[in-house]
Design goal:
- It is built from 13 helices and twelve strands.
- It is α/β, with parallel strands linked by helices.
- The protein has two domains: about 5-160 and about 330-340, NAD(P)-binding Rossmann-like Domain (Rossmann fold, 3-Layer(aba) Sandwich), CATH 3.40.50.720; about 170-325, Dihydrodipicolinate Reductase, domain 2 (2-Layer Sandwich).
- Helix 1 (about 15-30) crosses helix 13 (about 330-340).
- It starts with 5 loop residues before the first strand and ends with a helix.
Length: about 350
């Protein structure tokens, strides 16, 4: 007897590099999803800020859209249905089972939090790579997902596709995380390690911009907001604290950091911007700070675009997760791994 396939409809908010990489990955893994889970999928809607909105209940021609995509592309020509004038209308009309929220980071968490809230209320599962709404609205969105009996997943908000939250959720039962520390911003780590080799601050920063590694606003990287937002998500999701990005002490880096980088190297040490959280009484404290590390410290060995997170636990002692030179494909895989956890 032939296996009866289960149909799952996707909708995207945002169709940038991550969304397009996820679409390509889903196409490449289509046969695997059918064989492993008996699941077939189609994308019934895509909404963007600058490229229009498109809904088709029969499924958008995603292969054609990917092949023809350009910086000035407009999705409205693929729309097949009633007029859709806002993202709220889009969420209500897109016919999706899963909303992938992939809009640009805003420190306020909005408007992404509003999109996620609307989708959860409508009974959609939500998967996001946007750390802003997770950091600023973690408890309310998680509570709403439980109330609506749907999932709110966010693996791609920290360390791209490395299994951080899924590791804790599925593989560390009854484990208490005492503290954590890591290097979680590729842009600033690349700048610091390139400056050790004599590269200028400006040249290193320009490289990360050209590669699309920085946030849309690079000051979010340089001033520590990207790291603080990721740390806020980690503290709330893994340590039970209620720490927002504004509560986290941050150290910025700028072109005058070169002197400190070279001085550390002369002492056979390394300067890194360390993201850490620890318990103090009944509170969790978060900091994003420049630290001069001993050469044998695992964080000192993390160079270039690579990231590391070390969890200090009461069951497994220390666990380290290292991601070497991540790219947009790893972030796309985080969306895919969260999708698979729904099946």
């Amino acid at each position: 007897m032939e296996q009866e396939l289960k149909q799952i409809n996707f909708a995207f908010i945002g169709f940038g590099k991550v969304a397009r990489a996820f679409a390509r990955l889903s196409i490449n893994r289509r046969k695997w999803l059918i064989k492993k889970y008996g699941v077939e999928w189609k994308i019934t809607g895509i909404a963007t800020k600058n490229h229009g909105i498109s809904i088709d209940p029969q499924g958008l021609p995603i292969g054609k859209m990917l092949r023809s995509w350009k910086a000035h592309s407009n999705l409205n020509s693929f729309h097949n249905g009633p007029a859709c004038d806002s993202h709220a209308d889009f969420i209500r009309q897109c016919g999706a089972d899963v909303l992938f929220e992939m809009s640009v980071l805003d420190l306020s968490g909005d408007p992404a939090a509003s999109y996620i809230r609307e989708a959860l209320r409508a009974g959609l599962n939500v998967i996001t790579t946007n750390k802003g709404p997770v950091a600023t609205h973690f408890r309310s969105l998680s509570r709403l997902a439980r109330q609506r009996d749907v999932q709110f997943l966010y693996e791609g908000t920290v360390m791209d596709g490395a299994p951080v939250f899924n590791l804790a959720r599925h593989n560390l039962p009854a484990t208490h995380i005492r503290s954590l520390r890591g290097i979680l911003n590729s842009t600033t780590n690349y700048i610091l390690t390139q400056m050790e080799q004599g590269t200028s601050f400006e040249a290193a920063l320009e490289y990360t911009k050209n590669k699309g590694i920085t946030e849309a606003d690079p000051s979010l990287d340089l001033e520590g907001w990207d790291s603080a937002t990721k740390l806020s998500v980690l503290i709330q999701a893994l340590m039970g604290g209620n720490v927002k990005p504004n509560d986290i002490e941050r150290h910025s880096i700028s072109e005058d950091i070169g002197r400190k980088v070279r001085a550390a190297v002369r002492r056979d040490r390394r300067l890194r911007r360390v993201t850490r959280a620890y318990r103090q009484g009944g509170r969790v404290i978060g900091k994003v700070e420049l630290q001069e590390l001993e050469i044998f410290d695992p964080l000192a060995a993390i160079r270039g675009l690579s990231n590391i997170l070390i969890l200090n636990t009461d069951t497994m002692r220390e666990l380290a997760i290292i991601e070497n030179n991540p790219s947009v494909e790893q972030t796309a895989y985080a969306l895919f791994s969260d999708l698979v956890s729904l099946l």
